[in-house]
Design goal:
The complex is a heterodimer of chains A (about 1150) and B (about 120). Chain A has about 1150 residues and is of the alpha+beta class. Chain A is built from 23 helices and 60 strands. Helix content of chain A is about 15%, strand content about 25%. Chain B has 3 domains: about 30 residues; about 40 residues, no CATH class; about 45 residues, no CATH class. The chains are: A alpha+beta (about 1150), B mainly alpha (about 120). At the A-B interface, strand 8, helix 3, strand 10, helix 6 and strand 20 of A face helix 3, helix 4, helix 5 and helix 6 of B.
Chain lengths: ~1150, ~120
């Protein structure tokens, strides 16, 4: 895109044709057509970055605000134009051209241009990509064809994303909302085809379908019918969310359309009469993969035609369904109401009248060989011949193994005879149907409460009405300043591995809609969302007691805090989903993007059944949903950011999450002299940190740089063929690796593997990779002139957080025992995580549909393969962890043998220990022991499976001895707990002094000074790692110091007198003082301290030369009892 | 406020009229009446600000309806479209330079196709 709102003076950038072809991959038109096949519209499908509607930019409309930058030599920009992918039908070599995006087009009534009073049409001729012309006359009505946000996509119960995507892929953006919502009659056999579904008077259309609109008979103005209004929902119906995000199962082939795909399969027909892209729905026959199936038109015909199930592939599509469809008003006899599609549709090369197509050159069987209703033997004397023929024209009766989808586009010679080759243009431009997103990324399936315990709450339970405070905020001028959860947004989760709207500020606006949904703890523990706002928790049970019982709340681990580790419990470091999610369903593991399309490899299905193992109930035998699913263990890794949990600190409680890694398998240029994709960035090798300068990382951390080849040019190098599920790459060049399939559909043995999903070839051997690089360089002059000599196969693991498929705890839960994770072989701290998925071994003579799947092994020359899984350390450092090993390769047996000095590289399992702890430095245990490296650390972790050793299940003991004597006031005293009573676990000691100030002291030994006499209760508390508390209380008597009379004095200056004080005396009533100079006296004074000024006798008896000295004695009496006695020598200077 | 009151009256009237024929759940779920409007560009070419969809009584065909013109009659379509995650998909989070070039000098540009923190440019 060429505009930046911050610099409004900068408008569209225009390019020459060569610049445009060399730099452009996805234009706005491509986004609207291809991204828009699943998305709801708006954004770049509707307008440019300056807010100009794309329908008002098109030069054909004469309203292009950006045209000021236009020049005859640089006429193209990425809004008005796109690259029309074009390939030579025979060779497959590229002949791409720049097309004009039909954001607006002239309207015709029949063959007559429709004009409008102020029609924007200007006399000209618009040329379609196939060379056909579309003349425009002055004043002709120009119809906008942009992809506005389709509100009903989410808010209309019963909306069909598949029908929307058919229109979108066809480039009919203005009709997509009508088709998806059912406002338009999309049944090609209906008399009101492409009209509005108007109420015929009984709430139904003329064809007997629910009417979506009512028409004012006087004006023809239409409004939504009562039925349609009733289907509008504020919070989207669960099915609306599911139709893009998550299927419930993949039961059988009709289920693909009904409940698995998020966009339609499309075949390129080259006809632009009904489609701006030349794409249309392919013919299909859901019965075709399974044996010699019946032509369903015969079932209701009766004898002599065979009776039985018309659709043995589905329990849903029954004879009754067929009859219902046939009996609908208007002869809508091909329609199956329960799935909104016919079970078979479109004439195929196998059952078309007069078909002469003998072979599928790239592996598909011939019609004549397998079709029991071969047109050459068609019995025209049959009284039902016409009905049978009609049945063929709408599909059905196709030979086994040919469908269910038909992408065939055979090339014919000048006489109309098939050449034995497929039209490469048609196949390369056809669309591989795309599954629903969350299944694709995370393997999410929700078909029953066994798969997801929250099933009854639906998507809205967690994603709607979340009361988040992170909503859009605008300034006083109405300009947005914070772009958070907007109106119509469901609450988003928080994939900590993702950078989606994570607080990035662009042009002064912060974008952050992360973490606006309800998380597990929000409902189950706090009752508040991440902003601290109360939410509807649906009465979620509090699991704390169960967690405590399992020791999971014991503070025995190193949790992550703002400044590093701090004591915490397992719930501080393990996300809820880690223990409560169980994955026993099919998921994508590798996304093969080496051929210009994307083909998944998968795990979690019955590999022994090969492709058929993807389906739960392919033969309609009534197997329960999920019966073909198998368990796969997620990858456990530290998330890069915390979940916030009502804390603004992003590091707070950063946890271990469980992930599905999807490995993107791409061709990446690393030649610094070549810019593969025309973005100005040349190739670069991955940056590997040098252990010498980054010893912490030990060379394991790398950063990949990407210079991927443009996808359409990747198609240029491959030979494409049809399969029953998708157009697929079958090989390249004309020799050793031309095709994995022979003409009879069996494997040639040229390739090692084909994909389970569609039979596509997968690069997996050094020979395949090297030969393809050589081939690519050889065809460079016909493509883009760029060498592939330094192109590598880059396998990048992208993490997707797993948060769905919570199982009931009576079915599955981890953490009841330490050894669920902390033990050998548990695949938590150890073992490997498969990064390649499964594939079908393409052994010569084998059949795709009849072959088992197995783990995909990818090996190449060491220089041809790079790997890196995007992960994070416990400290939150982002990094890439390679998953590869060096070794030797035997090309004869196609076997790999590990050898650190080998020159070949195998894509290995990702080490789970490396994924959790990528750094290979030292690790310190919670108790302070330093371990040398990761291996030692992981070994240590796996030993921590004795809960009692950590004190779990063992109660703390609080014991301390009371002072054996009274405590003296104003004197420090040590309280000492008996720590020997607590030996297993970790313990916190505290003391509560009931001194009126609630003084609390910490530590097993604590010192305290009482400042007042009295009796005080002292309580010792001992809390262990589980939070259990024990206490011991004792009274402490604080007393004054024992009496001990003192005698002190101060000489009165210049005299032989002194001020004498008798202090600290016990309770008394009087004193008897012998002054030591021959005099004495009684002093009646009960004060503790008594002072007296005494004039001593200065006589020779006491003369000591320079001073006089007197031995003074005091007798302290309480009544008649002497309670103390003291003497002191008083020395007075002369 | 006047507008809201009018809507309530219309809704109430519709329910009163149709209520007997509707199930209870349908009646409570009903959205206010919605007239379909075609695209603004079509209306402009007919000299109108808004143009309802009219259909041929025989073929039932008519101009396509515009979600913006139809739903936007009551809802703030532009605000929703520009900022709701499902529709905007990163339109205003684009992080290129003013002339449309990538930030080539940034050593952290390792995925040059990712120019937004939302879904356009990702998958």
């Amino acid at each position: 895109m060429d505009q930046d709102p911050a610099t409004p003076a900068v408008q569209d950038k225009y390019y020459s044709e060569s610049e445009f072809l060399g730099q452009t991959d996805l234009t706005a038109w491509d986004m609207a057509v291809y991204c828009g096949s699943c998305h709801v519209g708006g954004g770049f499908g509707e307008k440019d970055r300056n807010g100009v509607r794309l329908s008002m930019k098109n030069p054909a409309g004469g309203m292009d605000p950006g045209a000021a930058n236009f020049s005859p030599t640089t006429p193209y920009n990425s809004y008005n134009n796109y690259v029309f992918e074009k390939f030579d039908p025979s060779t497959g070599m590229p002949q791409h051209m720049v097309g004009q995006a039909p954001w607006i087009y002239p309207v015709y009534q029949g063959m007559t241009p429709m004009t409008a009073p102020q029609g924007w049409g200007q006399a000209m001729t618009m040329t379609m990509p196939d060379g056909s012309s579309m003349p425009v006359v002055d004043g002709q009505l120009m119809m906008p064809n942009i992809k506005e946000m389709d509100c009903l996509y989410c808010h209309f119960k019963g909306y069909s994303n598949i029908m929307n995507s058919v229109m979108t892929y066809s480039g009919a953006h203005n009709a997509a909302p009508m088709a998806g919502s059912g406002l338009m009659d999309t049944n090609s056999m209906s008399p009101t085809y492409q009209g509005y579904t108007v109420d015929a008077g009984n709430g139904m259309t003329v064809t007997g379908m629910p009417a979506m609109v009512t028409m004012d008979p006087a004006t023809g103005v239409v409004s939504l019918s009562t039925y349609a209004l009733g289907n509008i929902q504020g919070n989207p119906d669960e099915a609306n969310c599911r139709q893009c995000h998550a299927p419930s199962a993949l039961k059988d082939l009709p289920d693909m359309m009904r409940d698995f795909l998020s966009s339609a399969p499309m075949v390129y027909t080259g006809s632009f009469a009904q489609s701006f892209t030349g794409l249309s729905m392919p013919a299909y026959d859901f019965n075709a993969p399974f044996g010699n199936t019946w032509n369903w038109t015969e079932t209701p015909l009766g004898s002599p035609y065979p009776q039985g199930l018309a659709y043995m592939t589905s329990g849903i599509i029954s004879v009754g369904d067929v009859m219902t469809g046939m009996n609908t008003i208007g002869g809508d006899w091909s329609f199956i109401p329960s799935i909104k599609f016919p079970a078979a549709m479109g004439m195929t090369i196998y059952n078309a009248p007069g078909s002469k197509f003998p072979y599928g050159p790239n592996g598909m069987p011939s019609a004549e060989l397998l079709d029991p209703y071969d047109p050459s033997t068609f019995d025209w004397t049959d009284p039902n011949a016409m009905l049978i023929l009609m049945g063929k024209q709408i599909g059905g009766g196709n030979p086994a193994g040919t469908g269910p989808l038909y992408y065939e586009s055979p090339l014919y010679d000048g006489d109309g005879n098939p050449t034995g080759y497929m039209d490469q243009m048609a196949l390369k431009k056809s669309i591989v149907p795309f599954p629903r997103a969350e299944w694709f990324k995370r393997g999410d399936l929700f078909g029953s409460r066994d798969q997801e315990v929250h099933l009854n709450m639906g998507c809205a339970g967690c994603h709607m009405d979340t009361n988040t405070a992170k909503v859009d905020q605008y300034d006083a001028n109405g300009n947005i300043v914070f772009d958070g959860k907007s109106q119509c947004d469901p609450g988003r989760g928080y994939d900590a591995a993702s950078g989606v709207e994570d607080g990035t500020t662009v042009n002064g606006v912060t974008f952050d809609s992360n973490n606006t949904m309800k998380k597990c703890a929000d409902c189950h523990i706090t009752g508040k969302n991440s902003d601290g706002v109360a939410i509807n928790t649906f009465g979620a049970p509090d699991p704390t007691a169960a967690h405590q019982a399992a020791g999971l709340t014991a503070n025995i681990v190193q949790a992550m805090g703002p400044a590093g580790t701090l004591p915490g419990n397992h719930l501080d470091v393990i996300d809820c989903t880690v223990c409560h999610v169980y994955k026993e369903q099919m998921a994508v593991r590798l996304l093969d993007s080496t051929s210009g399309n994307r083909y998944p490899t998968m795990v979690g299905f019955d590999e022994t059944q090969g492709m058929m193992g993807m389906f739960d109930d392919p033969f309609g035998m009534g197997m329960p949903a999920g019966s073909n699913a198998t368990e796969w263990k997620p990858l456990y890794a530290w998330q890069k950011k915390g979940m916030s949990d009502q804390s603004s600190d992003p590091n707070w409680r950063r946890k271990i999450m469980q992930l599905n890694m999807i490995t993107a398998d791409i061709w990446n240029n690393v030649d610094p002299a070549i810019d593969a994709n025309g973005d100005g960035q040349t190739g670069r090798h991955a940056l590997e940190y040098d252990p010498a300068t980054d010893p912490t990382f030990d060379g394991i951390i790398q950063k990949s740089y990407y210079d991927p080849w443009i996808q359409r040019d990747l198609k240029a190098g491959m030979n494409y063929g049809p399969s029953g599920f998708a157009p697929i790459p079958v090989g390249f060049g004309g020799s050793s690796f031309m095709s994995a399939y022979a003409q009879d559909g069996s494997f040639t043995g040229q390739w090692q593997y084909v994909g389970v999903y569609g039979g596509n070839v997968i690069f997996s051997t050094p020979e395949e990779i090297e030969a393809y690089k050589t081939f690519r360089s050889s065809i460079a002059p016909a493509v883009d002139g760029k060498s592939w000599d330094e192109t590598e196969m880059l396998l990048v693991g992208a993490p997707f957080m797993i948060t769905h498929n919570i199982r009931a705890t009576d079915k599955f839960v981890l953490g009841k025992n330490c050894s669920d994770c902390h033990a050998d072989g548990k695949e938590f701290f150890d073992g490997g995580f498969n990064m390649t998925g499964t594939a079908i071994k393409a052994n010569a003579g084998g059949q795709f549909m009849a072959s088992q799947a197995e783990e995909l092994i990818i090996v190449g020359n060491a220089a041809d393969i790079s790997t890196g899984a995007e992960l994070g350390t416990k400290d939150g450092i982002s990094l890439e962890v390679p998953f590869e090993e060096l070794g030797d390769w035997d090309p004869a047996t196609k076997t790999f043998t590990a050898n650190p000095a080998g020159s070949f590289k195998k894509v290995a399992d990702l080490s789970r220990s490396e994924a959790l702890y990528p750094e290979n430095g030292t690790y310190t245990t919670a108790t302070g022991t330093v371990l040398a490296d990761r291996a030692a650390w992981v070994s240590y972790l796996k030993t921590l499976n004795n809960a009692a050793a950590f004190g779990i299940g063992i109660d703390p003991v609080a014991v301390f001895s009371a002072p054996t004597t009274d405590v003296t006031v104003n004197t420090a005293f040590n309280f000492v707990a008996d720590a020997s009573a607590n030996t297993q676990g970790t313990f916190d000691y505290s003391w509560l002094i009931n001194d009126g100030n609630h003084t609390t002291l910490l530590g097993s030994t604590a010192s305290y000074t009482f400042t007042q006499t009295g009796s005080y209760l002292v309580t010792l508390y001992v809390k262990d790692e589980e939070g259990k508390l024990a206490s011991d209380s004792k009274y402490v008597k604080v007393v004054a110091p024992a009496p001990d009379t003192t005698i002190s004095y101060t000489q009165v200056a210049g005299t032989n007198s002194a001020d004498v004080t008798f202090g600290n005396m016990p309770v008394h009533t009087r004193l008897l003082v012998y002054w030591g100079d021959g005099t004495y006296e009684w002093i009646n004074d009960a004060s503790t301290d008594v002072s007296k000024t005494k004039a001593f006798r200065a006589v020779s008896t006491y003369d000591k030369g320079d001073h006089y000295e007197y031995l003074t004695r005091v007798y302290v009496y309480n009544g008649t009892t002497r309670v103390d006695y003291k003497t002191a020598t008083i020395s007075l200077a002369k | 406020m006047k507008r809201r009151s009018l809507k309530r009256l219309v809704l109430g009237g519709a329910l009163a009229t149709a209520g007997l024929a509707l199930s209870a759940s349908l009646a409570f779920a009903a959205h206010p009446p919605v007239t379909l409007y075609t695209f603004e560009e079509v209306a402009m070419q007919y000299g109108m600000t808004k143009m309802p969809v009219q259909v041929d009584p025989n073929t039932l065909r008519g101009f396509p309806y515009s979600p913006k013109q139809t739903c936007g009659e009551c809802h703030d379509y532009s605000k929703i479209s520009d900022h709701a995650f499902h529709s905007a998909l990163g339109m205003f989070e684009w992080k290129d330079t003013a002339d449309g070039q990538f930030k080539l000098d940034d050593p952290n540009v390792v995925k040059p196709w990712v120019q937004s923190t939302a879904m356009y440019g990702k998958w």
